Amino acid sequence: MQNITRHFFSYLSKNKLLNQGAKRWGLKLGASKVVAGVNIESAIEKIKDLNDSGRLVTLDHLGEFVEEEQEARDGMEAGLHTLDVLHEHGVHSTLSVKLTKLGLDIDKTLCWEHISALARRASIYGNSINIDMEDYARYEKTLTILRTLRKQYDNVGTVLQSYLHRGVEDVNALAGVPLRIVKGAYKESPTVAYQNKTDIDRNFLQMVETHMINESYTAIATHDHELIDQVKAFAARNRIPREMFEFQMLYGFRNDLQQSLADEGYRFRTYVPFGREWYGYFMRRLAERPQNISFAIRGMFSN
């Protein structure tokens, strides 16, 4: 049943007609609980509140799978504006970006120009860029761009997904690169991805532990307290300095656990999405955990 639910909401996340309708609805269906606003100006106070509570932030201007060059250019300009605003307000927030928002599906050279401009602007501000990993069809292209970027900018990292069979192999190949380790939220074939939680969790821990042992900065992105406890114990046993890793969770989820980790002295970062293109992101959150569906229904009636 859980796989059926996951596949259903994964399918909905890519429905362009529903995505267009979502822009007219505004942040309905409970999305306002997990999306910080429709623009950076509406999100900045929430970022400040998170910083005041001891939490760092990575900010995601939502949007993906663009098909027009002007859309991709708009995505790049929005990213530059976001970096400007973050610098102007002096908040502790990096920027997360999706390459399909910057034109990966249109032209690789165009995408390269856009992500390079963002990395350059972030470098000027002493900030960082994290490239979000998308579905497997775009996986190798994303890693190729990352490796090329890293030759010029050391302020760029990416995300690796533990549901992929090749996860540990790629962690080793990217030793020294800041990595955000996640479970993964796209529907993928059994030929490339694990399909059950046990395998995904086991691979998650192995990827995290491998990157830590490789003395590389590691972001552990999970809401699973059991996995978090295992990572904490591993770090303590192996004397991994706390400045070499951080825990991450999504904005609007498990706020009590987020605050608890920050209060314990762990580096903690909240992934904060904003923007009008919230629909695909929200559908994938529903796909990840059936419990999120009731969360959305409650939010729908409280908006």
Automatic annotation (TrEMBL):
Pathway: Amino-acid degradation; L-proline degradation into L-glutamate; L-glutamate from L-proline: step 1/2. InterPro entries: FAD-linked_oxidoreductase-like (IPR029041), PRODH_bac_arc (IPR008219), Proline_DH_dom (IPR002872), Proline_oxidase (IPR015659). The keyword Transit peptide does not apply. Pfam families: Pro_dh. Gene3D superfamilies: 3.20.20.220. Binds 1 FAD per subunit. The keyword Membrane does not apply. FAD binds at M133, Q161, K183, G184, A185, K197, T222, H223. Its EC number is 1.5.5.2. Keywords: FAD, Flavoprotein, Nucleotide-binding, Oxidoreductase, Proline metabolism. Residues 44-295 form the Proline dehydrogenase domain. It is an enzyme of class 1 (oxidoreductase). Substrate binds at K98, R284, R285. This is proline dehydrogenase. It comes from Salicibibacter kimchii.
